[in-house]
């Protein structure tokens, strides 16, 4: 017996599920060169246009001069530098929580947090559309794991009534493939009534939602008591890399003691943390980025409606167009690419069967004219596919 990898790959290709990595030959931005072609991109998570900001780049270079390149060790050994620490203090201040813990990436932040908080004999309840890292974390934790209906407080209540042990309710803040907001006031009320804790992963809300970019908890005005565990990532709107967990003193100390993906990994390069301090300042102060995004979101939604295409219930820069089959999503993506636009097709298992989509994302770096160009191309591409 041997692994029949080629059969698996062939099968995936036949199902229109094969993945390829577009090769970026320029820095991240709205105009990129991909596989030799100049394209206007509508699919990054660089929502505020900070991934290649000259001031953050400069801070990164300054960070390298001060701190060198490598973290050199895990945080508990000698990898925890004053640069990491300063960013943690700034993130605690930003989120209005007693403390924050810097992690290497969001995937590990979720894995480490869920597994440190619940285990055998406990319960973890998750929205069925949660990000893969949260679902994986729930499974790995060893706690009883159950998924409630998307954003459905009633469905959550039913599961809470059967929960055992310490119970953690886990949800995306902004759902990464749909763009809608978690109904946190209702979900947190259910959790609190059942003495469960709520954990929110706001990877796509930080920077975009809330007057200061404080994400969904700022948007809804929720306290540390209502959302005891708050996760954010730094590779999206912040434009750098890494993630953080914010919460009480006891939560952060517990993660330092028990979160294995935190303990057993090298700290991120301190220069990245140093650069993120500048990024955080821009996220908080440059309100025009959020204001401009709001203008683009409104313009895009009005344009898509006028084309007669279906939109999802999203007030965020994530504006997916669900087309159904993976084959059709790929064809639409290819038709846009032929018109100079980069919008990737998102297919199962990233999204549920039959809901393949173009995940259009807007960035504060886009102009209104660029959004109009996308709308025009969408109309053309749609017509072309329907005529075939
Ligand atoms: C991107 C994402 C993550 C992973 O964060 P990384 O820092 O990229 O590892 C986690 N949760 C959600 C909801 C995400 O969208």
Automatic annotation (TrEMBL):
Name under which the protein is recorded: 8-amino-7-oxononanoate synthase
CDD domains: KBL_like (cd06454)
InterPro entries in the cross-refs: Aminotrans_II_pyridoxalP_BS, Aminotransferase_I/II_large, AON_synthase_class-II, AONS_Archaea/Proteobacteria, AONS_Proteobacteria, PyrdxlP-dep_Trfase, PyrdxlP-dep_Trfase_major, PyrdxlP-dep_Trfase_small
Domain of life, per lineage: Bacteria
Catalytic activity: 6-carboxyhexanoyl-[ACP] + L-alanine + H(+) = (8S)-8-amino-7-oxononanoate + holo-[ACP] + CO2
Gene Ontology BP annotations: biotin biosynthetic process
Pfam families for this protein: Aminotran_1_2 (PF00155)
Keywords tagged on the record: Biotin biosynthesis, Pyridoxal phosphate, Transferase
Gene: bioF
Binding site for substrate: 19, 131, 350
Pathway entry: Cofactor biosynthesis; biotin biosynthesis
Cofactor(s) required, per the database record: pyridoxal 5'-phosphate
Binding annotation for pyridoxal 5'-phosphate: 106-107, 176, 204, 233
Residues found modified as N6-(pyridoxal phosphate)lysine: 236
Listed SUPFAM superfamilies: PLP-dependent transferases
Quaternary organization: Homodimer.
EC number: 2.3.1.47
Lineage: Bacteria, Pseudomonadati, Pseudomonadota, Gammaproteobacteria, Pseudomonadales
Keyword hit for Translocase: no
Homology family: Belongs to the class-II pyridoxal-phosphate-dependent aminotransferase family. BioF subfamily.
Leading EC class: transferase
Species assigned in the record: Halopseudomonas oceani
General function of this protein: Catalyzes the decarboxylative condensation of pimeloyl-[acyl-carrier protein] and L-alanine to produce 8-amino-7-oxononanoate (AON), [acyl-carrier protein], and carbon dioxide.
GO function terms (MF aspect): 8-amino-7-oxononanoate synthase activity; pyridoxal phosphate binding
Occurrences of domain Aminotransferase class I/classII large (ranges): 38-377
């Amino acid at each position: 017996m041997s692994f029949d990898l080629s059969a698996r790959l062939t099968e995936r290709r036949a199902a229109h599920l094969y993945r390829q990595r577009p090769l970026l030959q320029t820095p991240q931005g709205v105009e990129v060169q991909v596989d030799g072609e100049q394209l206007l991109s509508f699919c990054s998570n660089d929502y505020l246009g900070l991934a290649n900001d000259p001031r953050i780049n400069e801070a990164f270079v300054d960070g390298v001069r001060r701190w060198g390149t490598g973290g050199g060790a895990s945080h508990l050994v000698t990898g925890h530098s004053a640069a990491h620490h300063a960013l943690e203090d700034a993130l605690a201040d930003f989120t209005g929580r007693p403390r924050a813990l810097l992690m290497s990436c969001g995937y590990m932040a979720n894995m480490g947090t869920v597994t440190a908080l619940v285990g055998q004999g406990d319960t973890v309840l998750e929205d069925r559309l949660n990000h893969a890292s949260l679902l994986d974390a729930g499974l790995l934790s060893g706690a009883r794991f159950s998924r409630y209906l998307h954003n459905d407080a009633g469905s959550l209540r039913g599961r809470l009534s059967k929960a055992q042990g310490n119970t953690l309710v886990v949800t995306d803040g902004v759902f990464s493939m749909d763009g809608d907001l978690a109904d946190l006031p209702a979900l947190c009320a259910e959790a609190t009534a059942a003495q469960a804790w709520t954990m929110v992963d706001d990877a796509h809300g930080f920077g975009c939602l809330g007057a200061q970019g404080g994400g969904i908890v700022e948007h809804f005005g929720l306290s540390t008591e209502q959302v005891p565990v708050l996760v954010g990532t730094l590779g999206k709107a912040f434009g750098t890399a890494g993630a953080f967990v914010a919460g009480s003193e006891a939560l952060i100390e517990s993660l330092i003691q028990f979160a294995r993906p935190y303990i057993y990994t090298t700290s991120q390069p301190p220069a990245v943390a140093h650069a993120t301090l500048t990024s955080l300042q821009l996220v908080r102060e440059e309100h025009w980025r959020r204001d401009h995004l709001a203008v683009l979101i409104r313009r895009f939604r009005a344009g898509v409606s006028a084309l007669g295409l279906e939109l999802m219930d999203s007030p965020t820069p994530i504006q997916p167009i669900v087309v159904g089959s993976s084959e059709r999503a790929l064809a639409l993506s290819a038709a846009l690419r032929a018109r100079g636009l980069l919008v990737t097709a998102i297919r199962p298992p990233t999204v549920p069967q039959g809901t393949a989509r173009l995940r259009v994302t807007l960035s504060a770096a886009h102009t209104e004219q660029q959004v109009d160009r996308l709308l025009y191309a969408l109309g053309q591409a749609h017509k072309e596919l329907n005529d075939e």
